Amino acid sequence: MKRVKLQYFALLRDQRGAAEETIATDAQTAGELYQRLQAQHGFTLGPAHVRAALNGEFAPWDAPLREGDTVVFLPPVAGG
Amino acid sequence: MFRLTKEPLDPAALRQALLDPRAGACATFEGCVRDQNEGKKVLSLEYEAYGDLAQREGESILAEAREKFAILTVACVHRTGHLQLGESAVWVGAAAAHRDAAFAACRYVIDECKARAPIWKREHYAGGASAWLNGAVRGEHAAPAKEG
User: Fold this and answer.
1) What value does the mean pLDDT take over residues A9-37?
2) B51-91 residue pLDDT tens
3) In this structure, is residue A17 part of a structural domain?
4) Which phi and psi (to 5°) does residue B110 adopt?
5) Residue pair B7/B47 in contact by the 8 Å Cβ criterion
6) Which residue range(s) make up the domain with A69?
7) Looking at the domain assignment, is residue A79 inside a domain?
8) pTM of the entire structure?
9) Which chain B residues are Cβ-neighbours of A58 within 8 angstroms?
10) B76 CB within 8 Å of a chain A CB
11) Any A CB within 8 A of B52 CB
12) Which of B11, B27, B44, B124 has the most other CB atoms within 10 Å of its CB?
């Protein structure tokens, strides 16, 4: 198990009901973690509509998770 | 210069960032809060950003614009927080020797920001309902050619 810090924005923040949390997980990759969170919290956005960021940088779904990582799952952006 | 701010945008002040004696053209763009979207009456817009990554992505977009177009300066400032109708949500400005590059750079930056920067908006409707908008569409910005 490793501990990771999650930050949530926009739709995912609303659906999680929190802006951030620290969790223990044995998910190996960002993608695996999103699948679990989606199932656990009922996130309506599938992985095709979400991007991952690790420690402030965009990251692919197969990026490995490490102890102490900050993980953000980004809903489709809509600035401007 | 890319910046996120909670304060109202001041185009006259921002324009100062573009002053350059070599500039023969200055193009600016402002995106503002509109009173309807897809048939719904909108009362206000709420913007939220993932600050660290938005800053980094915004700076990358400006660097790309400097690379692609023959410009002297380019800048972008994006609001966060709760904005009322008519308020400016984003300001982009580019200065160049000639107008083609200034227009093209301005267009490139706003299109890429909308498509890539981790910024979200929630529309508030009459009656108290609200919804996060999903799925920005990248605009058909001008061909990324550097004028010779």
Assistant:
1) 97
2) 999 999 999 999 999 999 999 999 999 999 999 999 999 99
3) yes
4) -70, -40
5) no
6) 2-74
7) no
8) 0.90
9) 53
10) no
11) yes
12) B27
